[in-house]
Design the sequence.
């Protein structure tokens, strides 16, 4: 599902180049739930962005669900992001002026659009948010916001969820609820790559990959 081969990413900054990834190699099979761990600044978020086609590597091979991302056109990369991957971030990134239902439905790609509002409503009901459909994100708790963000990530029936510290702003009960949703997705055959500092969240993964200084330095099942 994920094939990263000697992937490097250098950010050019005012202070000079920053080597966020240095020849990182990783393979993840379809249906695996992988936690990525390592100290702050070791390249975990960059690895996730490159895997999801949100960032291009400086060098190396990135093939995800059969798409060779660095050599894909911007339109192919956008189609890949829309159809294959769902993202969940620590800060939710919901649109404040849209209702909960619209936040989820608006993320649907054109092929999913006709039934998007129905599917958004179903997902939100399944996630215990049926009383929140017409509310705006500011009226919700952090845990509710993250459940909305997971529904948004699932609207296009992705094969892969990339989650960057999804429980970083949640209390333990809300965190468990969000992790249960990711576990359900994985049980239905979805692949999950999760960046986390938290023991409890990492416990949901079947495999833990360790990073250090932009490299993958270990993998434990
Ligand atoms: P982690 O997720 O493990 O904290 P990141 O992938 O966010 O690591 O960052 C790896 C390194 O790249 C860090 O030194 C960080 O400061 C730097 N970095 C990340 N994103 C950017 C960016 N957009 N521009 C410049 N430097 C960045």
Sequence:
């Amino acid at each position: 599902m994920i094939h990263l081969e000697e992937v490097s990413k250098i950010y050019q900054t005012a202070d000079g180049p920053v080597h966020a990834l240095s020849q990182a190699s990783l393979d993840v099979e379809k249906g695996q739930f992988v936690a990525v761990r390592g100290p702050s600044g070791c390249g975990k978020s960059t690895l996730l962005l490159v895997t999801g086609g949100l960032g291009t590597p400086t060098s190396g091979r990135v093939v995800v669900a059969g798409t060779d991302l660095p050599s894909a056109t911007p339109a192919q990369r956008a189609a890949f992001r829309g159809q294959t991957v769902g993202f969940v971030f620590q800060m939710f990134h919901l649109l404040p002026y849209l209702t909960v239902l619209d936040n989820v439905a608006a993320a649907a790609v054109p092929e999913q659009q006709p039934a998007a509002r129905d599917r958004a409503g179903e997902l939100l009901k399944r996630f215990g948010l049926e009383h929140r459909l017409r509310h705006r994100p500011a009226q919700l708790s952090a845990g509710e916001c993250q459940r909305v963000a997971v529904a948004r990530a699932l609207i296009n029936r992705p094969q892969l969820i990339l989650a960057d510290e999804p429980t970083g702003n949640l209390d333990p009960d809300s965190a468990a609820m969000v992790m249960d949703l990711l576990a359900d997705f994985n049980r239905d055959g979805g692949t999950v790559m999760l960046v986390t500092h938290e023991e409890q969240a990492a416990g949901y993964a079947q495999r833990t990959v360790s990073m250090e200084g932009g490299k993958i330095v270990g993998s434990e099942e």
Remarks:
- The pocket of adenosine-5'-diphosphate is lined by residues 11, 13, 18, 20, 38, 40-46 (CB under 6 Å).
